[in-house]
UniProtKB/TrEMBL annotation:
Organism: mine drainage metagenome
GO cellular component, as recorded: ribonucleoprotein complex
A single GO molecular function term of this UniProt record: RNA binding
Family under the similarity heading: Belongs to the snRNP Sm proteins family.
SUPFAM superfamilies in alphabetical order: Sm-like ribonucleoproteins
Protein name as catalogued: Like-Sm ribonucleoprotein, eukaryotic and archaea-type, core
Alphabetized UniProt keyword annotations: Ribonucleoprotein
Domain Sm: 4-75
Pfam families in the cross-refs: LSM
Annotated region described as Disordered, given as residue ranges: 69-100
Amino acid sequence: MVDSPTRLVERMVGQRVTLRLKDGRRLAGKLEGIDDYMNLVLSEVDETTAEQSRHLGTVILRGSNLVTLHDSQGTPRPVGVTASGAAARDPNRTRPKGEPLAVLRLLAQLG
């Protein structure tokens, strides 16, 4: 069975990742969590644009802004999002259903 994009990204939790956003910015940081809609929580984030680089700290990123996601070795991971904006669902997932605030709970735990 082929893993869903969400499941692939879940395997990267705890690792350093690099993201490219729709507006061209690049973010690099530690992936702390992901929800069913591909929203991400990252810590220790550095942002790079054409003009500058800056440290952002902890960031919540809406999944619909994500273009590519790379692990620390630069390996790209697919970021498939359905037309409704929800990431493809895996019926065998271990995460409980009905957790739209999971990312916010994780952020609260990070303090």
